[in-house]
Amino acid sequence: MRGITTDCTSCNNANCFIKKHLHLEKMQDFILEKTNYTCKKGQQFMIEGAPIQGLYFIFKGKVKVLKTGIYGREQIVRLTTDGDTLGFRGFGTSNRYLIAASALEDTVLCNFSNDVMHAILKSIPEFTYDMMLFYAEELNKSENRVKKIAQMNVRERVIDILLYLLKKFGHTNNLLNINLSRKEIADFAGTTDEQVTRILSSLKKEGVIKIVNKKIGLMEVDKLKAEIIEHK
């Protein structure tokens, strides 16, 4: 990874956990300890089982968060973008990353080392309290996702992911602002590439999605939502 410099005070990521707490006087000292990196598309910067190197915050880009499943198959557990936090699941507990992370496009990362994060948590109570709430919210999201996936068939899981991508990344000219391969969609849905291809082809024939140069557009969002409404 190549080092660069970003400025927290001029950052536009209002959802970034660090940015939200810049108003706290003591945070001004800690942001000077931040390190920045750029990752090329496809580059893995967090390795499952490796020692934790602090927390990462996405300044700009898109990242897939992975966990190794049965027979060594990768399972995408989360997709992240500008302002999102990475590496928090193992922080302060196992001291090793419980997941891996790879850039989906050229990405700029902010990193706060273990020592800096521990110093922040010990010296800024408001930050620590909000971090506790953040962990609780993430746990709730994770539990709800596991429950939902267990109750959905494969077609419903693929539709749910398409709607998630729309909500998370938005669209331009009715095409999703993220371009995942069929394998990546399958790894997220817990199915096979072949099943994803078959389901996308079926949805296209039904006129609820379109596919342009491998990019997916959602044409009938309400119809897609109606198909999985009982799981919401």
UniProtKB/TrEMBL annotation:
Listed CDD domains: CAP_ED (cd00038), HTH_CRP (cd00092)
Pfam family of the protein (one): HTH_Crp_2
Keyword field: DNA-binding, Transcription, Transcription regulation
Residue intervals passing through the bilayer: none
Annotated HTH crp-type domain residues: 152-222
Superkingdom classification of source: Bacteria
Record domain Cyclic nucleotide-binding: where: 32-87
Cited InterPro entries: cNMP-bd_dom, cNMP-bd_dom_sf, Env_Response_Regulators, HTH_CRP, RmlC-like_jellyroll, WH-like_DNA-bd_sf, WH_DNA-bd_sf
UniProt entry tagged with the keyword Metal-binding: no
Name the record gives this protein: Crp/Fnr family transcriptional regulator
Species name: Flavobacterium zubiriense
